[in-house]
Amino acid sequence: MKSAEGKFIVVSNAEPYKHEEGKDDEPVCKEVEGGLTTAMNPQMRDSGGVWIAYGRGEKDFSVTDPDGKVKVPDYPEIPEEDKYTLKRLNFPDSQYRNFYRGYANRILWPIFHSFPTKADLRKEYTYWNEGYLPSNKKYAKAIIHAYQPGDTVWVHDYHLALVPKLVRNELPEAEIGLFWHIPWPPWESFGKLPHREEILKGLAAADLIGLHLENYADNLLECAERVGADLDRGAKRFQLDGEDTQVGAYPLGVDYRFFDGTDTEGKEADIRAKYNCDNLILGVDRQDYTKGIPERIRAFEKFIEDNPGLREEVTLIQRTPPSRTGIEEYQVEKSKINDQVSEFNGKFGTHDWTPIQLFWKGVPQRELIAEYRAADIGLVTPGLDGMNLVAKEFVAANEEPKVLILSEFAGSSRQLEEALLVNPYDPDQVAEAIKEGLRMPREEKERRWRRLRKKVRTEDLPSWAESFLKDLENARQLHSMTRFSFPESEPERGLS
Ligand code: GDG
């Protein structure tokens, strides 16, 4: 699905595959869990492009060539023609700490999720000191090195907001798109960000900035205006620092055919047998305070407390692969969840029944699909989430009608209106939705499920990529005609 005659250069912080130490010290290739990997893999497979990312695996650099490149997926069963190039970047530990754990995840992440009190602004220096800016420069340099005229550069997410400007400075004619995977908050939250102008100037050099929802796009436009951009609200364009960009909403979808069609070899029956209970509820989230895990567990507890007759008939499986383990807040939350779950299981569990099954690790994708299929209810209740792919994957994986309980603060709730939509901070409401889900008449379940499946099938990953890339091409054409027709503000060449 290439948009132009050239190749794709996809750029993200997280790599799609890492290499770890296997048996006999041999490096073993593993898929990295995460929204972006799942989202982008099919396109990379089909287009044979270059993916530039940080190499995080312990054996990552033992398999790369001197330029940091390796062909992935590096599995013996994958033929060479189905692989693409992954270029791994290496950062000194101190730089990565400042960039990733510092500016990106202790400042940008909380502010963009409207948790400004969780933002550690003492870490403001991490923008400069071997941190966000120099790391963005390193990504930009790798792009410039890989670039050939006609290529499409597709940058992903909040770690790399300065990259469009840094690349544009060197490649004025390049087609550059950026997709922003997290919410764009209102000015009241965004405005608290140190370097808010630099972030917007960095982004303004992209031809197109995609976000999941219209209201995120509107928030971005308003924030740009507040820092002095000229706005064309109707056309969703703004001009800042001599750069002119288009903003649009592109709700990310999932690879429906993959989730629908993957053969799980009946593993779901084994999972159900293991828990020996009539109804399984499933939560799947990267560990993060935005995902609302303690609130979800509290709501499940409420449900169990309020419905003694249903005890031993319902089990919650909470699958939580760890993430950002080096950040203190994440460690604190993890131990709180452990305490919460063990206290509850100790109070209500019996010899035959453990109400909450908590797993602090990920499983391979096929097993995850089997878990989706084993579950009767998908419980997806983030406090705030740009999109949330788990909700869509749960729908895509299940041909059999199920129940989806979904937070109204997940971006996906705008499309998946036939789910039982809940306020994740209201335990009574979530507990009530669980009860409703368990009792839902077959006909209603089928009716809702049919509509959900249709949306996830039609608004899927290829259609998302196609519409973003089509608009990107148009935006580039427009910019190549008009880019230098705004003489009143002389562009400052270079972010310093
Ligand atoms: C960000 C935004 C936005 C989870 N556990 C396992 C596993 N996963 C995969 C899921 C899903 C992905 O991780 C999680 O994606 P989400 O969308 O739910 O959330 P984030 O990681 O926070 O992603 C989010 C997304 O970017 C895309 O734009 O939707 O709002 O925060 O794909 O399947 N995969 C495997 N094993 C697991 O145990 N294999």
CATH superfamily of the largest domain: Glycogen Phosphorylase B
N-to-C span: 36 Å
Number of domains: 3
Radius of gyration: 23 Å
Number of strand elements: 18
Structural category: alpha/beta
Number of helices: 16
Polypeptide structure, described:
The protein has 16 helices and 18 strands. The relative contact order is 0.11. A hairpin with a 2-residue loop joins strand 11 and strand 12 (243-249). Strands 5-6-4-1-7-8-9-12-11-10 form a 10-stranded mixed sheet. It has helices at residues 35-47, 93-112, 132-146, 163-170, 187-190, 196-204, 214-226, 256-261, 267-275, 293-306, 328-348, 365-374, 389-397, 427-439, 442-458, 461-482; strands at residues 8-11, 17-21, 27-31, 50-54, 69-72, 84-89, 152-156, 175-179, 208-211, 230-232, 237-240, 243-249, 279-284, 314-319, 356-359, 377-380, 403-407, 420-422. The longest helix has 22 residues, at 461-482. Mean pLDDT is 92; it is low at 484-496. Helix 4 (163-170) crosses helix 6, helix 10 (293-306) runs parallel beside helix 11 (328-348) and helix 10 crosses helix 14. It has 496 residues and is of the alpha/beta class. The chain has 3 domains: 8-89, no CATH class; 93-253 and 462-480, Glycogen Phosphorylase B (Rossmann fold), CATH 3.40.50.2000; 256-458, Rossmann fold. Bound molecules: GDP-alpha-D-glucose. GDP-alpha-D-glucose is lined by residues 33-36, 38-39, 181-182, 252, 284, 286, 319, 321, 362-365, 368, 385-390, 393.
